[in-house]
Structures are given as C-alpha cells and as structure tokens.
Design a protein that fits this description.
- The protein has 641 residues and is of the alpha+beta class.
- The protein folds into three domains: 41 residues; 84 residues, 2-Layer Sandwich (Alpha-Beta Plaits), CATH 3.30.70.2110; 368 residues, DD-peptidase/beta-lactamase superfamily (Beta-lactamase), CATH 3.40.710.
- The chain has 22 helices and 25 strands.
- It is elongated and about 140 Å long.
- It starts with a helix and ends in a 9-residue tail after the last helix.
Length: 641
C-alpha cells in the first residue's frame, strides 16, 4: 500500500507540474501573440509612418509663381519659364572626392570650380556626416534642360549631385513698368528669419531657404498671393539611400494666384514715350476710384537682368548709377511742388473767405519784404489780377500777398494736409515717400529759428521746405476733379485663379480722405484751372482739339537760377462726369537741359488716351505748330511758368 500510494502520489505531483508548466507556456505564448497583434494592428499605423519617415527620400517640387496681367487681362506681362537648379549634398560625396566631383560638375555647368567652392562651406567639403552636410546646397540656377541631360548621363560620376525644376521669372513687358512690377530673387538669410513662420490658410509654411521672393514692386507687395504651394515627391530608400520603390508618391505643386493690375499697358507705353529719355516721372490716375492707369519713372531697368547667378553684380551696377534707375520717382522721390501748389492756395483762400476772388492785386514784378527783394517770374509784372487770372499767369506776387497777409502758415499747412501732402498715400507698393509739410513749430525745433513772413511767401508758391511726390500732385488734382474726395491710389485690380481664371477677389475703391469744403469752392477752382489752360501760360503746349483740359504748370527752382523741375498737373475731360475723367501729372527733373517739356508730354498723353492712339499717332494728330515744337525741341532756353 505504501509503495502503491507513494508511486501514485509521485505521478500526480509530476502531472501537476506539467500542467502548470503548460499553463505558463500558454500564458507566455498568449502574451506574445497579443504583443504581436498590438504591434502589427493596433500600433501598426504609427510604426509604419515612422518607418516611412525614416526610409523615405522626400524632395520638394517648386511651385510656379502667379502671372501678372495688365487691366485688360488678355496677355501676361510676367510669366514663368521652365528651368532647373543644380544642388550638391556634401554628405553623399565619398571622402576625399569633393574636388573631383566639383571639378566635373563645374565643367558641365560651364563655370569655374571656384564658383562652386564659394557656395559650399569649407568645413563641408571633405567631412561627411558633419552638421549641415545633408542639406542640399544650390550651386547653379537657371540651368537649361540640355545641360541637365548631360549631367544625368554622367550621374554615376557625380555622387551628391541632383537637380530640380526651378521656374525662372520671365518679364515679357520691361521698360518703365519695371518700377511697378518689380523683380524677384532668392530669399536671403535675413528674409528667411523674418518670413520663416509665415503660413498659408492650411497652416503650411510658405517660405524655405530655397524660396524665390519678390524684392520690389508688386512682386514684393503681393508675394504671399503670388507664391504657390510647394509639391512633394517621396521614394522609399534603404539606409544607403538606394531607391527601393519604382513609383514615387507625388503631391503636385499648386501655382500661385494671378494678379490683374489697374495699369493699361497702352497708356503706360504712351506715357513712357511722351516722357522720353528725360529723368522724371509721369502718373495717370482715375480720380473716381484711385486706379493707376500708368506710372512711369525714368530711367528704368530690365528686370530680366536679375534672373541669373550674376544678379548681385547687376544690382550693384544699377545701384551705383548716378541717375538711380532703381528709384521709382513717381512715389519714392520728393520735390518742391512749385506753382502747382497754387491750386491749394486758391482753394484755401476761397474756403476761408480770406480774400475775394474777384478782387485784384497789383503785380509790379517784385515785392520788397524785410531785407530781401522777391521777384515774380515775370520781372516786369503782370499788372492787376484777380484769382483766376493770377492762377492762369502763375503770378507769384498775388500768392505771396494771399499767403503772407490773408492766410498765414498755419492755415496753409492745414490745407496742404487736407490734400494729402505730408502723409503716405498708402498705395500698394512696399515703399513710398510721405513728403513733407512744414509748420512754424517744426522750424523752431529743427533750426532753432522763428518762422518768418519770407518763409510763408516761399511756401505760398510751392518753394521752401514743402516736398511732394508726383503721386501726391496727382491726388491733389484728383481731389479738385472729385470735389473734395480722394481715393486710395492702387495698382491691383483683381486676383484670379490660375486654373479657372475666375475672379477670387476684386479690389474695391477706398476713400482716403473726404473734405467738407463747399462744392461751390471746388467749382470755382475747376473753372480757374480750365482758364489756366485756355488763357494762361500753358495755352500753347496744351492746345488740344480732342479733349478739354484743366490744370496747372509748375517750375521749381533748384540750386541755381538755370535749373528747374518742370511740373504739369491736369485732368480731362473738363466738365465731364468724374467717372470719365483722367488725371495726368508729369515731372521733368532739373538734371535735364531745360526745355519746358512737361506740358508737351502731358498733351501727348491726353491726345493718345482720348483718341485711342499710340505715341506716334498722337504726336501726328496734334495741331501743326505744337507738333513742330515737339519734333524739334531739344534745348529750348528760358523759363515759363
């Protein structure tokens, strides 16, 4: 019994151990199965994503910038041309092979090895896997397809070399439109620091260290609109970078939005030719809504000069030019307004009822004041004149008396600011001059001198400290034409979808300033400006049978007695609804030889606009005596107000 039961107990004990062991093995196996299930099913998506991130080679695909059109929106002024950029990744070049690869690549690109060396930091040339060595470095842009084909055929000898599409901005319309449109260039380190965190509506970063951005003009002002959305091309690779998948995953880029400007290229070219090769500016503006139909500044430049790797050299050459072709004189250069300021003086006199407009003041050709003699531009005098006649003949003596004896500096400054002088006009360009309107307290702070009556006299005829841009003068005339209302001048008309051409956004007119001056005052000033053209100093050069013009000349003395800026500020058609009217302002700088060209250029522009003619046709259609002067005038002498 003892042996029997002892044997039986031992067998039971052994079976129990087997059961327990089997149970433990089952638990371990179950846990293993659960873990595999968790890794493959529950957490599988997360690990697959991590795996793809680690094993995917991602390249960005540059998006094309939006195109830019003039107001007719039929042919683009700015397009994109297919081109390529060549990159170098130092970490992918075998040790001590940098010089060989760089030399071969330079020969294919048609450049010297030194040009590649200048772009690749010394510490990355011979050290693999150092900080920054995996970052692609652009060594050449604007590379044609034929060169890329040659590199592709020899890619086995060029480890670390790759290429990508990088469209080049092609400026179809150049000339004076360059200051309006601007140009683009590679983003700088300073720009990327400021722009790096800018995102689009989907929260994606817009800019990278390889972005091309607007540098000036509309290209810069509306860069976010013009920038497209970069695409992505990803391939699965092994740890050595060898491609494992034949078919890449491609997210195509999205082109930037197209811009339609307010500029009419026919009028732009007309104004450009009318100004000619004279340092100066011309502005054509719609007073009813602030649309800029033309904006000319001479000299100008060709934006396509900045399309290659010599952009910095080209920029420095233009920046050092004495005539400053990069300067947009229409908005970024300030000048004395000269006798165009008498429009403001007349308005202030009437609005303040400071002096009866029908009452005469005698001009003897000079005014003795203090220890100075102030000479009118007509030294023998104009005789007795009322306001309308004084504006037409641009009599300095009349406006000296009005300013010094009846208005004073405070009221003159106030009305100048009422017309927008001394303030930014908020045009949609990245830079603009505010100009300047002086006051008595300003002079005391600046020069520690009291404001004198002579200062008021100078200010009354647009000389002295007052400074304006041609766009300020255009807005001044627009305010008269529009009877006290100024719209914000603007260059953008519409934003359109590049695929469907549908209008995404239409720019609405914005009132910049609205005066409460009585309408009767504006009507009297308008009539005086019309009388100035028919019976005043510009009657001959503004002789025009197509359209009735109202306006005012100006001659700003600069430095010495034989150097003057020439102004002409007009609107037409006179007495037409403001929606049909156009403002034209022309400035010819004193650096040109004096020929009193501004009024002749203005007449050509009006003739071309309202007769739908180009420059040559407009000149040929003007009265014979005016046409003869235009064709022959080169170095006319003398001063005409």
């Amino acid at each position: 019994m003892t042996n029997y039961f002892g044997s039986e107990n031992g067998s039971v004990e052994q079976n129990a151990k087997v059961v327990i062991l089997g149970f433990l093995i089952s638990i371990i196996f179950a846990l293993y199965i659960l873990k595999l299930f968790s890794l493959q099913v529950i957490e599988g998506a997360q690990y697959r994503k991590q795996s793809q991130t680690i094993s995917s080679q991602v390249k960005t695909i540059d998006a094309q910038r939006g195109e830019i059109f003039d107001r007719n929106a039929n042919m683009p002024m700015v397009i994109n041309t297919d081109s390529f950029a060549v990159d170098l990744i130092p970490a992918e070049i075998p040790a001590d092979f940098y010089d060989s690869v760089a030399s071969r690549l330079a020969s294919y690109l048609g450049i010297s090895k030194n040009e590649i060396d200048r772009r690749v930091p010394v510490n990355l040339r011979h050290t693999r896997k150092s900080i920054g060595s995996y970052t692609a470095i652009e060594v050449r842009s604007n590379v044609p397809f034929s060169v890329i084909s040659n590199i592709a055929e020899n890619v086995t000898d060029l480890p670390g070399v790759s290429w990508r599409s990088k469209p080049v901005r092609n400026y179809v319309e150049t000339g004076s439109i360059s200051h309006v449109v601007g140009y683009v260039g590679d983003i700088t380190n300073e720009e990327i620091k400021v722009m790096y965190n800018i995102t689009d509506e989907n929260g994606r970063r817009v800019y990278s260290n390889k972005s091309v951005v607007g540098k000036t003009g509309v290209e810069k002002q509306y860069d976010l609109r013009l920038q497209g959305v970069q695409g992505r091309e990803s391939r699965t690779v092994d740890v050595r970078g060898h491609v494992l998948s034949d078919t890449p995953i491609v997210e195509p880029p999205q082109m930037g939005k197209n811009l339609v400007l307010t500029v009419d290229m026919r009028i732009q070219e007309l104004a450009e030719k009318a100004l000619g090769e004279r340092v100066g500016a011309a502005v054509v503006l719609r007073p009813s809504d602030g649309e800029v139909l033309a904006m000319v500044s001479y000299p100008f430049y060709d934006q396509n000069l900045f399309n290659d790797d010599n952009a910095a050299v080209q920029y420095n050459r233009l920046a050092q030019d004495a005539n400053r072709p990069l300067l947009n004189r229409a908005v970024n250069a300030a000048y004395p307004p000269a006798s165009t300021f008498k429009i403001i003086m007349s308005t202030a006199m009437l609005a303040e009822k400071a002096f009866p407009s029908a009452k005469d003041i005698e001009c003897t050709g000079r005014v003795d004041y203090g220890n100075r003699i102030f000479h009118c531009h007509q030294k023998w005098g104009h005789g007795w004149l009322n306001m309308r006649e004084a504006l037409a003949q641009s009599c300095d003596v009349y406006y000296w008396a009005i300013g010094r004896d009846y208005l004073g500096v405070d009221k003159i400054s106030s009305y100048a600011k009422e017309f927008g002088f001394g303030e930014s006009l908020d045009i949609d360009l990245p830079a603009q001059q505010a100009g300047f309107v002086p006051t008595a307290p300003w002079k005391e702070r600046r020069f520690h001198q009291k404001w004198l009556g002579g200062d008021t006299m100078n200010m009354s005829i647009g000389q002295g400290y007052t400074l304006v841009t041609p766009l300020h003068i255009a807005n001044m005339v627009a305010m008269v034409a529009n009877k006290g209302k100024i719209y914000r001048p603007h260059l953008l008309k519409e934003i359109r979808d590049p695929a469907s051409n549908e209008v995404i956004e239409e720019i609405k007119p914005q009132i910049l300033h609205e005066s409460n001056i009585d309408e009767s005052v504006w009507r009297e000033v308008q009539n005086a400006m019309r009388y100035t053209i028919t019976d005043g100093t510009p009657a001959f050069p503004l002789n025009n049978k197509v359209v009735q013009i109202a306006g005012k000349t100006g001659t700003a003395e600069v430095g010495s007695l034989d150097h003057w800026h020439s102004w002409m500020a007009c609107y037409a058609p006179f007495n037409a609804p403001v929606e049909e009217q156009v403002v034209v302002v022309v400035l010819v700088e004193a650096v040109n030889e004096w020929e009193w060209w501004a009024p002749y250029a203005t007449n050509i522009i009006f003739q071309g606009i309202f007769a739908n003619q180009n420059y040559e046709e407009a000149v040929a259609s003007l009265p014979a005596n005016v046409r003869e002067v235009i064709r022959s005038r080169k170095h006319a002498q003398g001063r005409a107000e």
